[in-house]
User: Fold Arb2 domain-containing protein from Rhizophagus irregularis.
Amino acid sequence: MFKKKRTKKEVHVFPRDLKELGYCIDEEGQLKTIVGGEPYKFEVREKDKAYNEALYDAILETIGDWVQDTLQKKFGMVRALLPIGVTESDVHTKIYVSPDYLTNEKMMIFIPGTSHTIGIWSRRVLADKSVVEGSMIAYTQRAIEMGFSVVITNPNEVFWYKDKGVLILPKSTSEFSTIPGSESPENHIKYVFENFVIPSGAQKIVIVANSYGGHCAIDIVQNKCKL
Assistant:
């Protein structure tokens, strides 16, 4: 009896640099190829799902970096490490807050759905339509224009793996830690409210949430915090 020999799956490794990946973000916020200026298409290699998915993930990671960089440089958003008091070398996650979050009487809080990195509303919109529309960039700009302070939560980054916070573990057997205070999306939002929202001077609080983020918002308002 003969057994078919299993072939090892090819592991695709890409640089974490949009330009090196062959893409750029144009003036309208659309993801385009550097050569030819074509809109991004998922199927770069025909019938090679593993390659296309790996490239997609790499592109989205670099765009996530770009979004965070834009939030800081364009709007002055401040990166705050959680739990309070940790350093970059400790187990931690992060959120972004506007410099006036402690003193502004109006606050807007953004809570994304599941599987999205900080500052992102929709990976699909990000890649297929507009980096600005798929991220929290436009929302942050509008909130600031309306006189609100801004708090961008990060409820999906609940694992600590290989010295960084991650959304999804590569394997179920991987050694990992949970992040104190952010062991789950609900706990993360509770920690943010207890340590950033409630101690602030905000009298009017607006929550903008998407998908499971809506559940987290309802959970915190109804069950865990007295605002």
